[in-house]
Each structure stands twice: as C-alpha cells, then as structure tokens.
Amino acid sequence: ITNDFTRNGDKVWFGTSHGRVFRSTNNGLNWAVSAPFATNVLVSNIAFADNGTGIAVGIENTSNFILLSRSTDGGATWSTAEYQIPGGISPNALVYVPGTVRTFVVSGARLGFNGTAYTTDGGLTWTLLDQLVQHLEVAFSSPTNGWSGGFNRMFKFNGSLAGSVTGLAED
Fold first, then answer.
1. d(CA 61, CA 49)
2. For the purposes of burial, counting CB atoms within 10 Å of the CB of 112, is it exposed (0-12), middle (13-18) or buried (19 or more)?
3. pTM assigned to the model
4. 52 and 73 Cβ atoms separated by less than 8 Å
5. What's the N-to-C CA distance of the chain in angstroms?
6. Stretch (H or E) spanning 59
7. Is 87 helix (H, G, I), strand (E, B) or coil?
8. d(CA 105, CA 30)
9. What confidence tens digit (pLDDT) does each residue in 103-113 have?
C-alpha cells in the first residue's frame, strides 16, 4: 500500500507499490483490484470524480519516469499507461474538483516540474495555472473554492474551473 488513497461517497480507492489499485464500492467491506500499471510502478496519486472518471499517476521504480492512466468506470478498467507529466508538473497531489464532471487539479513541488495544472477532460489535456511555485498539497471544495500549500506559503484559487481561470494568489 502506498500513502495515497481517495474516497468519493461510499467508494474508496488506494494504490500499491506494484502498479495496482484496490477499490471498494461499500466503504471497504469488499475489495476488487485492477492494474493500471506494470508491477514496477508505484501508484503515487489517484483521484476519482462522482461519475467514475479517474486518474492514476505512477512512478517507475528504476527510472523515476512518470506515467498516467485513466479510467471511466470507477477503476474497473484503465487506459494504457502513458509516459506523461500532466501539464509539466511532477505530482505531489492530484484531486478531483467537486461540482464538475471531469475536472482534476495536479500540484507539484519538484524543482523544474513544479506548479499547478488542471484538466477538464479527465486527463486527456492539461492547462498550467502557474509554474515555478512549489505546491505540496491541493484541495478544492467546488469549482470556485480551492487552496494549495507550499513551503511556508498558502495559496487561494481565484476563478472558476467551470469557466474562466485567473490562477492562484498567495494568501
């Protein structure tokens, strides 16, 4: 088990250090497993929308290459893993934006690959919100309310991920 899990209603998912994702549709009473990545990949981030659209980010154990896989059925099946750095960000955090259909935000703090980016199509394309700022964690409560934290800094999202975006302002 990795240190990443996500929950949406009575559904729960967690990743493993061997490329697998466990999912439960009844608050953890029963579990099923799927494999978005090969066994040499650590599932580092995972997030799911209300409609079952999900994104998993993995890191290859030997190369540290970043991979991304998508699901449209709650994690039962996954797209073929792609070598992709979402929006140029090496993810520290990945979250679904509540109140949207397929919008996710990724944040990262790794130098040269830091900042925040978002997708409105379930991870097919990514748009940068900012670069060169280290974001360790990100959270959204709606398309207009979002926050991220970095080293001794807090940021508040300004705009709407349901429409126009103006970026993150230091708070």
1. 28
2. exposed
3. 0.88
4. yes
5. 34
6. strand 54-60
7. helix
8. 29
9. 999 998 888 88
The tokens describing 18, both together, are 């061997």
**What token pair was written down for 22?**
């466990």
Question: Cα–Cα–Cα angle for 148, 163, 49, nearest 5°?
Answer: 60
pLDDT, tens digit, 9 for 90 and up, residues 20-69: 999 999 999 999 999 999 999 999 999 999 889 999 999 998 888 899 99
- Amino acid sitting at position 160: S
Number of neighbouring beta carbons within 10 Å of residue 77: 12
- Does the pLDDT at position 164 exceed 60? no
45: which residues sit within 8 A by CB, 6+ positions away? 4, 15, 55, 56, 57, 91, 93, 94, 106
Q: Give every CB contact of residue 169 below 8 A, 6+ residues apart in sequence.
A: 155, 156, 158
- The structure tokens listed for 52 are 């079952």
DSSP E strand boundaries for 87-152: 93-96, 104-108, 115-119, 127-131, 137-142, 145-150
